[in-house]
Amino acid sequence: MLRSCGTSFRWADEAPAPTRVLLVLSFRGQECPRHTFMFIDEAKIRVKAGDGGNGCMAFRREKFVPRGGPSGGDGGRGGDIWMESSERHNTLVHFRFNPEYTAERGRHGEGSKKTGRDGEGIVLKVPVGTIVYDEDTGEKVYDFSHPDERVVISRGGRGGRGNAQFATSTHQAPREHEEGRPGEERNFRLELKLLADVGLVGYPNVGKSTLISVISAARPKVADYPFTTLEPNLGVVLAGDKGKEESFVVADIPGLIEGAHTGSGLGTQFLRHIERTRLLVHMVDVSDSSGRSDVVKDVDVIMGELASFGADLEKKPTLMVASKIDVANPEKLKKLKQWATRKKLKLYPISAVTGEGIDKLKYAMAEGVEKVRKALAASEETRLSKTTA
Ligand SMILES: Nc1nc2c(ncn2[C@@H]2O[C@H](COP(=O)(O)OP(=O)(O)OP(=O)(O)O)[C@@H](O)[C@H]2O)c(=O)[nH]1
Ligand SMILES: [Mg+2]
């Protein structure tokens, strides 16, 4: 099953702190201003660590053991709440569906000096790059800059002592026992600078913004003229079965035209926003609305512009998409298919209007992102094992 999700981003000027001004913007139906910018994904969560179990008040009563003495056990500790950075996550979107977490409480102590079991802790996974703030004080709690970092963000309550603990030589039948301490309850704000995983490229008007608007909650302006998009738009896409969704970030950037690297159209300056993406989706309009007759030339022009940007963009893993197939010119579609077969590339024909091919493309994007993610993790592991050897 595929689902897209609702989300909003914060937009921030990239001026150095402390002059940095943060604005809260929902990108629904809004165009972002012309600045150098970054997108910030944000989530608020409430956590409650487990309460400690109560200490028990009991006395040993057994045949042949007169005055057996106090035997109340201690309560168990409440579970802690941890946060761990993970490379498998790259957005905070999972916290929007599940903003509250409560760890298990410790079991109460029992007679025969039995200590209660400790409560289970909870580990919340966050993407590398997440900064955690205490929502109530505004204080920065932690900055996850590396994978597999783990910190306690909320401590479980201590278990109360049972009456056995209060026995002394002069106080041999204590009735005192303690209640467990409550677990910490805290509110956090999580912030993550979003990097796009997938970049949409192609001529103006091929349907890039329309595609991002049907696969994510981003609502960029869509119109039937070139250069509708003047600034990149980001959208978070969820793909996979409910509860096990993978999320990834897609960037829709202004269209490219022949000579963009020399400044034609809006130039190639926006390509820097997709320099660090893991995958490109190259969209080719196969309808007659493009006004161009040769789809293969369209592909070559865009590839040429990507190559002249100089960041190896043309070598990135790329999914080829034939857009607007609901109004396709059959000749153009056939020609693009033949070209893709010759190049041993898979072509994804889609229509953002009828929805045809959209789910398939979404799965392919998720799969592509995951593949590159795994390859990067493997090469990082090899690098680390070499440096430690
Ligand atoms: N029939 C049809 N029209 C589409 C489809 N996708 C997009 N369009 C139309 O094509 C036009 C351009 O769509 P946009 O999404 O703005 O194109 P873009 O690639 O973002 O364009 P720029 O922002 O100018 O680069 C709009 O009028 C859309 O409604 C489609 O699948 N079928
Ligand atoms: Mg657009």
Distance between the termini: 44 Å
As a percent range, the share of strand residues is 25-35%
Q: Give average pLDDT, whole number.
A: 84
How many structural domains in the coordinates?
2
Q: What do we call the CATH topology of the largest domain? A: Rossmann fold
CATH architecture of the largest domain: 3-Layer(aba) Sandwich
Spatial arrangement of strands, main beta sheet: 1-13-14-12-15-16-17
Radius of gyration: 29 Å
Helix content: 10-25%
- Largest beta-sheet characterization: 7 strands, mixed
Pick out the low-confidence regions.
1-37
What does this protein structure show overall?
- By secondary structure, this protein is of the alpha/beta class.
- It folds into 2 domains: 45-193, GTP1/OBG domain (Spo0b-associated Gtp-binding Protein, Chain: A, Distorted Sandwich); 196-388, Rossmann fold, CATH 3.40.50.300.
- Helix content is 19%, strand content 25%.
- The chain is built from 5 helices and 17 strands.
- It has helices spanning 93-97, 208-215, 295-309, 330-342, 358-388; strands at residues 2-4, 9-13, 22-25, 37-48, 81-86, 100-102, 122-127, 130-134, 140-143, 150-154, 185-194, 198-202, 233-239, 246-252, 279-285, 318-323, 347-349.
- The strands form 3 sheets. Strands 1-13-14-12-15-16-17 form a 7-stranded mixed sheet, sandwiched between helices. Strands 2, 3, 4, 6, 8, 9 and 11 form a 7-stranded mixed sheet that branches. A 3-stranded mixed sheet has the order 7-5-10, with no helix packed on it.
- The chain is elongated, with a radius of gyration of 29 Å.
- The protein starts with a strand and ends with a helix.
- Residues 1-37 have low confidence and may be disordered.
- The protein binds guanosine-5'-triphosphate (GTP) and magnesium ion.
- Guanosine-5'-triphosphate (GTP) is lined by residues 204-210, 222-224, 226-229, 254-255, 323-324, 326-327, 351-353.
